[in-house]
Each structure stands twice: as C-alpha cells, then as structure tokens.
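Bug #2210: token dump truncated for laccase?
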Amino acid sequence: MEGFDNIFASSHRLSLFFLGLLLLLASALSLANAKTHNHDFVIQATPVKRLCKTQNSITVNGMFPGPTLEVNNGDTLVVNVVNKAQYNVTIHWHGVRQMRTGWADGPEFVTQCPIRPGGSYTYKFTIQGQEGTLWWHAHSSWLRATVYGALIVHPKEGSPYPFSKQPKRETAILLGEWWNANPIDVVREATRTGGAPNVSDAYTVNGQPGDLYNCSSQDTVIVPIDSGETNLLRVVNSALNQPLFFTVANHKLTVVGADASYVKPFTTSVLMLGPGQTTDVLISGDQTPSRYYMAARAYQSAQNAPFDNTTTTAILEYNSSACAAKNCSSNKPIMPPLPAYNDTATVTNFTTSFKSADKTLVPTDIDDSLFFTIGLGLNPCPSNFNKSSQCQGPNGTRFTASMNNVSFVLPSNFSLLQAHHQRIQGVFTTDFPANPPRKFDYTGNVSRSLFQPVAGTKLYNLKYGSRVQIVLQDTSIVTPENHPIHLHGYDFYIIAQGFGNYNPRTDPSKFNLVDPPLRNTVAVPVNGWAVIRFVADNPGVWLMHCHLDVHITWGLATAFLVENGAGELQSIESPPEDLPLC
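Reproduced locally. Full output below:
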C-alpha cells in the first residue's frame, strides 16, 4: 500500500505540475493575443456649425464627437494627448477600472494636474475583464460638452458575444448637449452669479441635433439596417447635465449590457440613461422597410428647474431592395412616442429590470458600512458680494451641493493622488463622515438650517480589500432629483433601490445578492435611495461624484483613498515621468 500511496502522490504532483503549466501557457497565449493600441489626441479649437451658427469648439483631432477607440478585452491603450487649446485639459477613461494605474484615470486635480496649453501627457492602461461600451471625455471644467467619444471593448480576439444572435453591425449612439455659446463661458457666468447655468439649446445624436432643429436636417445621422438582420446599438449618455429617454419608432430594444458588463437580456421600448451611463441593445430589422426616427429627450425629475425640452433625432433607415424599390429615402420618418418629461414610473420600471448575466461576487460581510446623503444647497450671499449680480440663486443666495453636508473643494497646487503618494501635508484630510452629521427627514420638509453645507477637501480612507456598502440617499434640500453617481476606478453592484428614506431595519430585505447589475454609474432615484457594494481592491485616490456637471461644479463629490495592500501587485504603480506638474 505504501508503494501505491507514493505512486498516487507522485501522480497527483505531476497532475498539478501539468495543470500549472497549462495555466501558464493559457496566460501566455492570452498575453500574446493582447494588443497595444497607440493613438494621438490633439486638443484644439475647431470651427463647428450647429443650429445655423458657427463657433470655435474644443475638439479632439478636429472631430466632434471625438474618435471612437476600439479594443479587445485584455488590450492596452496608449494615448498621447497634446493640448493646443487655450484651456487646461485632462482626459478621463470613463468606466475603465485602471487597476494600479490611477495616474491614468484623468480627473483634474484628483489623479493628475491638468495638461496646460502647449503641454502633453501620455495615458497608458490595460483594459482587463471588461467587455461592452465605455467612453472617454474631458474632465476639466465643462470641456466634456464637446470633448468626448466612445471606447468600445470587444470580447477577446476570436471570442463571440454571449448573445443568442451575433450582431451584423454595430453602431455607437452618443447622446449629447449643445450650447449656442462657449460652454466654458456658460459655467463661468454661473459661477460668477451663483445661479443655475443656462440650459442647452439642443440635444444631439453623434454630434448632430437632427431634423427637429433649425439648419440641422441635412446632417441628421442615418443608422442603416437591413431586413432580417440583428444589430447592436451602443448608447451612451454623454450629455453634460441631463438624464435622457431614448427610443426607436416601432422597434423593440433588447438590453444586453450596461457600463461594459453583460446583463440578462430584457426587452423594452424605451431606455433611460443618466449622464455617464451606457446601455447596449440589440435591434432587429423586423419592421416594414422604411425610415424610423430614433429620438431622445429629457427625463426631468427636479421640480421647478429649467431644462432643455427639445428632442433630438437620428434616422434608422432600411437598406433592403424592397425599401429601394419604394424609394424609402424620400419617406418622412415615423416618429416614436416618448415618455412624459417627469415619467419616473417608466424610469423605475427600466432601471429595476437590470440583472447581471455573469457570475456575481457580491460582498456579504461588510467592513465599511457608509451612508451618504446627496443633494443641493444654498449659501447666503457673502457681505462683500453684489447681491443682485453675484447672488442669483433663490432669494438672493448662491447654489451649492454636497455629500454628507460636505461641499467638495478640489485642490489647485497638487493633485490628491500626488499629495497622497508624496505624503504632502495640508492638501486634504481623511475625515469625510461615514454618516450624515445630522439625521433628518431626508425626503421631507427639510429645515433651512440644513441648506448650507461645509466646504472642504475631505476624503474617506479605505484599507485594501475592504468590503464596502454605501447607501446613497437623495434629499429634498432645494429640490429632490435623480442623481447619476459615478465612482472612478471601480465597478459596483447595485443591490437595491427605493423611494423615500432608506430604512435600515426593513429595506435590507429587498437586497438582491444573487444577480445584481454591475455598474460604474448609478441613477439614484428622485426622492429615493440606492445601495451599492464593492471590494476596495484598487489602490489610489478615486473620485465619487454626481455626473450632472453642474452639480460637481457646486461640490457634489467626495473621494476614496484606498491604501496599498501587500506587495507590488496590490500597490499603485509609480507615477509616469511625464505626469503634468501643477
């Protein structure tokens, strides 16, 4: 028996050896198939004509929107950004995990100092374990109004999509906002007056407003489809300040992915995306060959707040011989019905339909249980300000915004990551509150004493590997609103959401710990709450903020400082040599 045991043990060790060898070979093969994609981004002023008016807009490589970048899961991107514009700029790769490469994340004064006019910086990072639609955009002031583009992550080379039908074509649909003004001037004027900024003059699809606006019909975007084929639409809400409904006349949309994660397919006639969110849908050419409008317009949850109530369109056009015979191109496109601007019921039905298609690893034993209130605020008019011109918020105040009553202030002499890495004192503190400083009826009638937050650069410290749960609670301070909250450097599970005040005794019974969706941006319901979970496995400084840019301008943000773990593979990489200086 002893000899048999020795033979068995030797055989087991040999099996383990060959298994390890196979894993090494598979890893090496994966690396061999992975590619490095090099791109040059030149930030420059470019004449762009929209709505009958030409203005100098800030673009990438003279394109609006900017170039679409396409990679496969596992590939590396190297993007050299040269700033030939008059403004400081950074580029954020929205939704990319940036594992250990936080220096490439991009938010100004958070992970880097801005690229000054005449300067350059090379972003280098690998996209691993993500597939679907992401995007990139400027993360300096309001430059992302025109500086943005799609970032498409295909499956590993040779691998199909996990769909029942492989798409014949793929089309990126970037929804945006357009001002008949310089967006930088718009936000600067609002900062000067303390009031709300002027709303946009149009929404756009791939940079074009569409048929319903003046001087726009000639350039309306055409999306081709053939009878019988199934296509993939990659929809991105790249608008600056507005959640948007999106629909296609007479066609059902099968949702298959969101924020570069696959979801269990479900069918809908309308999407709602908060700024920053992406949704992948399959659309079938199963209607009478003709022309059908794709349309997007505002979902407006804030009460008594001005908003752009126009509608942008593109055209889904059948290319079949039957359509050619009927000269479909001359047909007036069919217009779809759109939800009412304040149709929160439709939004709720849509957002609660998402379930993860992949195996989930939802953290259960929580180390950091956090509760963040989010919302607007009002500061009184400072005594040295002109009340009529510099305090144009409600009743002579100035707008502000906060999380847990802290209105976030960005540093200006160092980036937060640089200050952390170099142990520079006095740039930030790590005393961001884990809970609201004062409990109150968050969605009820809030006392005016809670309208004025405290300004500060306060971060929340997380140990590497910490299992985190955050309750995000909307408030009715000034007005309740649907807030798209984006976390840099992480995906997170949305395990529950609801209306009213979150109840820690009864609402955990609603938690989905089996197949919750994995997202990077969560639309916190108006007058409601959402609960998210993630594991802090990516060291660095990571911004969490409302993706309505007017709100981050007012301070609706915070940041997590995630400590290094054990050893090199759990520590952030050293900063690149060309990292911009402040």
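Output looks complete on our side. Confidence is low (pLDDT under 50) at residues 7-27. Marking as cannot-reproduce; reopen if the truncation happens again.
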